[in-house]
Amino acid sequence: MENELREKAKELLESGEVAVVIGYGFNRKKTRITPVFITKPEETDKLVFNELCVNNLSIYLTRKYRDIQKIGRPAIVAKGCDIKNIVVLITEGQTKREDIHILGVTCSGVVYKQELFKGELKPEIMPSKCHNCDVRNPHVADTVIGEKSDFTPPEEPTGMVFDKIKEIDAMSDSARWDFWNEHFNRCIKCYACRQLCSLCYCERCITEKNMPQWIETSAHPRGNLAWNLIRAMHLAGRCTFCGECERGCPVNIPLNLVNQKLVLTVKNAFGFESGIDENVHPPMIVFSEDDNENFIK
Amino acid sequence: MPEEAKIETEGVFEPKIMAFVCNWCTYAGADLAGTSRMEYRPNVRIIKLPCTGRIDPLFIMKAFENGADGVLVSGCHPGDCHYTTGNYHARRRWTAFKDLLAFTGIDLKRVQFSWVSASEAIKWVELINNVTDDMEALGPFMKFKEMNKKGPNQG
Q1: Using CA of residue A94, residue A291, residue B77, residue B124, what is the dihedral sign?
Q2: Do B103 and A178 touch (CB under 8 A)?
């Protein structure tokens, strides 16, 4: 599979169809996977794909990384879940389908965090998204690499995140408040969750607007709550549950829970799943006259 | 005198309610209630915005942070929006935001949504009286008030 990937990348670079291949490669010590940017055909041997390739590379297609866009037309190595983010970027006009070459790779799951990997991919170290993955065969791609996967996701989503959401839903209001305060109190406002997210591409984030200061910048519980809720709210109907924010959080706030909760809300209320079809508008910019309004008096 | 101390010494609790209303319907409805000399509970502080579509979820968070016991969000009935579709978009946003608030443990009685048109002065009066009663039953919003007393996170 890796050879197939390298050959295709080489072919694309040699023909001049793309100027850069964004993919996965080993670090110098060969211990971890990092993003690599290949611009020369002879360097394509650096490309790898294995169960450590958890990073969502679609972030390099956003305007956060103008220097990469300056190189020229990119090809991107993407798993099904990364393609979902690319699809959202296309629906939001951040990039054009014809401006990128998607090297879709079939995937049989990745690790939750690279340091958990001990030579074997076990279900316990896979994130919830992999247990319920419906895009192991890339759904939007120019080239599909790897053998077709015949994995079918369970009908009822399973995994730690979904169990925990059910548990929180059954809690009393004050128990929920205590649960979230305990987690959000740890927030140090490093904004790693925002920097890692390929859908948080605003050039001026709401936290940087200080006339008025919408979200307190100090790590006070009040500002922490506002930041974490508003971040989730700005991803409502857009988040594809790729899990990068939680993976990057230095204090392990379970951000996947809030994100997935909103994914479920949007799915139930508007019947929308983000990242599936690049020709459908995201749910928060359109409306239906028949939207549910039983909560409005 | 700090608010909590006042409640302890005098035994009265006057809830603070923030109302974010749209300029064209609910504000006009409240205005009609005023010009018709209708009487309603004085606990509401009205903020007029151009449209319900202008009401950012951050406003609701800010209101709670600054000591509101309840928030009311109100605008034109669906189909009546001065800007044609503002309230439809707002409705979608609230659908997601109310679930998020409930998930964090905020009682949804503290955030109420309604449609009040320019002619519905009676509905507005009833709405404010009901919301004020709800807040009196719930008591001061201690979750945020306690949080405000805490110092910044020292790790």
Answers
A1: negative
A2: no
Percent of chain A with pLDDT over 70: 100
Range in A30-39, A74-83, B144-153 with the lowest mean pLDDT: B144-153
Domains and CATH numbers, chain B: 12-143 (3.40.50)
Of B61, B65, B89, the CB nearest to A287: B89
Closest CA–CA distance from residue B58 to any residue of chain A (Å) = 7
Give domain limits for chain A: 2-145, 160-270
Residue A169 contacts B where some CB pair is shorter than 8 Å: yes
Looking at residue A179, its pLDDT comes to 94
Residue from the list B100, B112, B148 with its beta carbon closest to the beta carbon of A222: B148
Q: Which residue of A has its CA nearest to B116?
A: A297
Residue A120's pLDDT is: 81
- By C-alpha distance, the chain A residue nearest B127 is A297
